[in-house]
Amino acid sequence: MTVYSAPLKDLKFTINELAGLEKIIQMPAFEHATDDLVDPILDEASRFASEVMGPTNVVGDQEGCRIEDGTVKVPSEFSAAYQLFFESGWQGIDCSQVYGGMGLPSLIGAATAEMWQGANLSLGLCPMLTSGAIETIEAHASDELKQRYLPKLISGEWSGTMDLTEPQSGSDLATIRTQAVPHDDHYKISGTKTFITWGEHELTANIVHLVLARLPDAPAGVGGISLFIVPKFLVNEDSSLGDRNDVVVTSVEHKLGIHGSPTCVLNFGDNGGAVGFLVGRENRGLAAMFTMMNLARLQVGVQGLAMSERAYQAARDYAKERVQGQIPGSRESARIVQHPDVRRMLMTMKSLIEAMRATAHVTAATIDIAHHTDDADERTGTLERSALLTPIVKGWMTEVAQELTSIGIQIHGGTGFVEETGAAQHLRDARVLTIYEGTTGIQANDLVGRKVLADTGVGMQRLLQEIAELDAPLADCGPDLDSIRHAVATGRQRLEDATNWLLGKGHDEAAVVYLAAFDYLMLAGTVIGAWQMGRAAEIAHRKLAGNEGDTDFYTAKIITARFYAEQILPRSAAYFEAATSGGIAAMDLVEEQF
Ligand SMILES: Cc1cc2nc3c(=O)[nH]c(=O)nc-3n(C[C@H](O)[C@H](O)[C@H](O)COP(=O)(O)OP(=O)(O)OC[C@H]3O[C@@H](n4cnc5c(N)ncnc54)[C@H](O)[C@@H]3O)c2cc1C
Questions:
Q1: Which end of the chain has the least Cβ crowding within 10 Å, N or C?
Q2: Mutate to test the pocket of ligand 1, among 165, 201, 297, 402 (most ligand atoms within 8 A of CB)
């Protein structure tokens, strides 16, 4: 069985030295978030993840969820773990102090989220969905709804869900059919939502569903969707609970992974209509839902990172123990960690994990600045940057998680294929990450269509310029960092060339552009990862030169960055070639092949 231990040193390195926590906590919104507050919180989160949530992971996988008497029974050990989560106030870590949250930056929220998801992805999904509901209500709901719902969501006493999907409506939300009919001061909601994560359970006293639905006279398409709060129990003015609302669970899915997370089919309005309250304006629901989806996309990217880290820890520990064969040139029995190929696999995991963590944290920091800076130009720039990075964090990091959790099994050999080891659960659990919150195909379309072509590549050009600015500091570090410098420059050039190629094709050659989208997304992730690894190496080099800090830690940072530069970044050549091939697959005649 695998044990999860939060990678605290690495988390603190990326938060402080790459993502720039110091600058963020200087903003007035975070003046209470001093170093002496943040560090102990991260230490305690790490303890909580490994001692409270982690031990429920395997048992949750084995027990799964079932329907009983109209409710869903989740794995028995989740209840005590969630109760402690609630009592510790973890839900509110990065939520507004106005409604009882701790008011820490999203950057700290991203770090604790990695710990929850690494410890137990199934259980971690519950607070993850609640965070999305909190952020959406805070950004779009009326003051009255905020007062009524936010304090108990932020405390973790209630949980939240996100209800978009319907049988005919997955990636394409334009086809949503759930109805919302105005009635007195509220709406009557009726329809069926499928695949609703933590849609029904008894861990919390109430469940607040955020539901996309359509008014009777709404225009067709996404311009006719509205967003509603539909609580499981109606909420009185003083936030106490009233009658049961007209929403029931009709089944829970049997899934490949995340067995401990109930994925529910919910029926709204079987008995006359569930009471719902409009969030934001009529027919503007999708814009409000995007608040929730964008946050969730980042969090799912972090889930990819967390599962990769968990798989890495298990593989590393196993490789240090398992004895098999001899290393070339020796007759001694070797531990498999000594074999060059096993080292390659472990370093592939380690270096991609570090690159992903840095990319996620830098994105979270960008969001903090965008939401709290007083400087209008800085706000525009950071909003643009976070919008550009979001599909890359979601798409690239969850695709990489498929590879790394699979390598985790490979390092275990046959034992990895057997459930008892735990390595198989990591792969099974991670498999959904490229699917929910928008498939990789949808992220790639978003990146190419909305984030690159729509602004004629301006945001991407700014990013490329920033990557170019790392060249001089890397050159100053001398020959030790040459391969890293070369890799960053080469990758940057490929990303620039691919961007110009896309812009050259534009919307006129949509089929070719959207064929290229996946490889372009993977190219962007790989290059941004190299950039962050280059930044880490440059910082580590300076620290070592100045005899500052932990020598082993900073030496390891340079080794991992070199591995990334020499073994991972070359993938960018293949992504570039595939993206810009303008390939045969876009041609109509390919359809005849299927
Ligand atoms: C475990 C689990 C939990 C979930 N939790 C929730 C939840 O809490 N709330 C919720 O609302 N939903 C949830 N979902 C639903 C999830 O968001 C959808 O499954 C997902 O958006 C994909 O929709 P779909 O399954 O209908 O696939 P489809 O949309 O039918 O897609 C099938 C394939 O076609 C591709 N495709 C579709 N459209 C395009 C396009 N325009 N361009 C390129 N390729 C395209 C996709 O990439 C995919 O490969 C969950 C799903 C699962 C499996």
A1: C
A2: 165
